[in-house]
Structures are given as C-alpha cells and as structure tokens.
Amino acid sequence: MSDTATAAPSRARTPEGTRRRRRGGPPGEPRAVGWLYVLPALLVYAAFLLYPLLRAVQISLYDWNGNTLATWAGLDNYVEVVGDPALRASFGHALVLIAFYALLPLVVGLVLAAVLGRAKVRGLAFFRTVVFLPQVVAMVVIAVAWRRMYAPDGSINDLLSAIGLDALTRGWLGDYTAALPAVGLIGTWFEIGLVTVLLLAGMGKIPTELYEAARLDGAGAVREFFVVTLPALRGEIAVALTLTVIAALRTFDLVYVTTRGGPGTSTSVPSYEVYNRAFQQGRVGSAAAIAVVLTVIIFAISFGITRIAERDR
Length: 313
Hints:
Elements: H1 2-23, H2 32-59, E1 62-63, E2 71-72, H3 76-83, H4 85-119, H5 124-132, H6 139-149, H7 155-162, H8 179-203, H9 208-216, H10 221-232, H11 234-249, H12 253-258, H13 270-280, H14 284-311
Helix pairs in contact: 2-14, 3-14, 4-8, 4-11, 5-8, 8-11, 11-14, 13-14
C-alpha cells in the first residue's frame, strides 16, 4: 500500500521532468519569467536612451532650425559631416584628445600603481582618495581653475619664469598650436586618478603566489611587472580605456568653458559642434547627424576594446 502511494507521485512528476528536459531549460521557473524582473529597467532604458537616440536619427534626416516646419534632407546632413573640413577637423581633435584622456593616464596610472603596489606605501587609502579627488569635482569648476592657470599672467607662466624658461611662456589657450594639447593635459590630470585607482584595485586581486614564483625564477621588478602584473590587469585596463575614451570623445564642458572651440576652430570637438550648430546656428538636423555619428564611433571603439580584452583572456 505504501509502495503504491510512494510510486504514484513519482510517476506524476516524471512527465513534467521529461518536458523540462525536452525544452532544455533549467528546473524551476521558466526563463521567460526572468524578463519580468528586468522589465522596469528596460522600460527606463528605452524611454531615456533608446527613444531619444531613435528620435535623433529621425531629426538628422531633416533640415530643421528647431522652430519652423522641417524639410526632408535625406542623407545630406551625413554627407556634410564627411565633406565639411571643419567637421572632419573636429573629429580629428577628438582623436587627439584620446591620447591625452586615455593613453597618457593609462601609462602614468600603470607606473603609479606598480610603484605604490610594490612599495607598500603607508596611508595608501588616503593617497587613493587624494588621487581620485578630481573625479568628484565638477568639470566646470576644474575648467575655470585651469583657465586661470593657463592665462598669460597665470601660475603656469609664473612657474616657467621662475625657473628661467621665459621663452616658453605664452597665452596657452589662445595659441593655435598649444591650445589643444593644453586642453588635453587637463583631461590627463583629471583621468589619472580614476585609472590609478582601478589598476590598484586590480593589483590587489593578483595572487601573491604568482609574484613569489616569478621571483624564484629570478625575475626582477621590471620583468615581474610585464610577466605577472600586466597580464593580470587586462580586465581593468579594458575598463579604464573604455571609460576614458568615452570621456575624450564626448567632452563638451571643458572645451566650452576654456576655449569655446577656439582660437579659430583649433580646439573644436564634435560635442561642441553639436551645441554650436543646434543652439547657435539653428541647424538642428546637422547637429543631430553629428551626434549620431559620434555615438556610432563611441560604440564601435568601446565594442572593439571589449572584444580585444575578452579575446586575450
């Protein structure tokens, strides 16, 4: 009697388990239920990111000043992005800023993180806070401070004069040659802290056994860095490059406060051109086309960095 009662539930559960195995899904709730949990976040994402992006694509196909009736322009705005020398130059300036925002901070951050991680400096937590401090200060405030430092009577020229380098003094932000590197160095100073903290966090996760094995093999400090530390930091390097490259390509407030794209157009970047064309020139369609192209470039570079990092693991 008891054997029959025990077998009955077992037989009752068997068809359900068979159906689950046939579907290939895990036991428990169906996978479709998982979408219900992320649906609120997806709705917010769609409302505040996907819809504005699609709307920008739509506007980029029209000639519109923001007030009157728009007229169909097709791909003319995109042709202008490619054919206008000033717009091409602005994208070139953004690529130059990548070197200052991403590559220089990465090199300096690797050196700082390696030295600090090896030296076991006291008060490392305090140092991380100080280095990371620029990230919590508004970029507008930073831009105002650096604009004053770059002024003809600013502290940078005073320092150069004090050490006998008067020939190098100039109005940095008003010089056609020096303006873009001067703006880029602000980005370097701003991003070094973020990169260094990310790399220090990554170094803290590297097993000490790897360093001990390298030392047993006779590796010095430099070889230990390239053999053990650098390969273990691929994930953190990819994150740092992604964040800093995006910051370089979408920078606006720094350029707006310091140079307004000048002198001439020597520091103009795509994000500033979006503002200039939409709100100064009344060419909203052209501005939307620039924004769409910039978005595609940012996505492509970020995707490329992520794929390279995943492939090398």
